[in-house]
Structures are given as structure tokens and as C-alpha cells.
Amino acid sequence: MNAEGGEITLVFDQATVELDALQRSAYALAAEMTTDVRVSGGDYVCTLYRRGQDITDDELKHRFRAEVNDQVLRVRIARETEPLRNLVFALAFSQTGLSEAGLSQSGETA
After folding, report:
1. 7-95 maps to which CATH number?
2. Is the Cα dihedral 100, 108, 91, 75 positive or negative?
3. Band (70; pLDDT cuts 50, 70, 90)
């Protein structure tokens, strides 16, 4: 950590954290900091740059880590529920009568 420049460095293992989760975390906290993400070996190295002085380095680190954990879970849940979401959408849209097959079955003309 470089206190003079306001830089904070955090390292995340690529095996446990996806780049998408880091980018979403950086976006969620963009009002408080900017973030530089680089790949180093099997890790993502995140350098955080504080925007203001009203938050300590430790608070910023904890906020970023908490947001990363949240985003990792969101990515995992989205991946795990994708087949079910697609099924629900397919069923919902198949009942609208908007497809040509749906229109011809209901007796309406296009």
C-alpha cells in the first residue's frame, strides 16, 4: 500500500474470482475510487485509487472485498440459474401468441 499516492493494492486469485466480478465491483464503487486491474501470473492485481479523503485505506479495502464477494456470488447464481431462466422465458413468450405459429393457431391473421 502506498499511503502517499492513495494507492491500495489487492490481489485476487483467478481460480476463485472472475474478471467480470472485479469489473462490476469497480463500477459499483466508482464514486469512491477508480480501479486498475492487471493480470500477474494466476492472479488479478487490483490497484485502487481513492477519489476523496473521507474514507480510510482499510475501509476502502473492506468495501472492495465485500463488493467482490457479492459480485462473485451474483455471477455464480446467474450461471447456475441460467437454464431455468431460459425455460421460464421460453414458456412465457410461447404463450403470448406473437409468433406466426401462435397467431395461426389462434385463428388470427398476420
Report:
1. 3.30.70
2. positive
3. very high
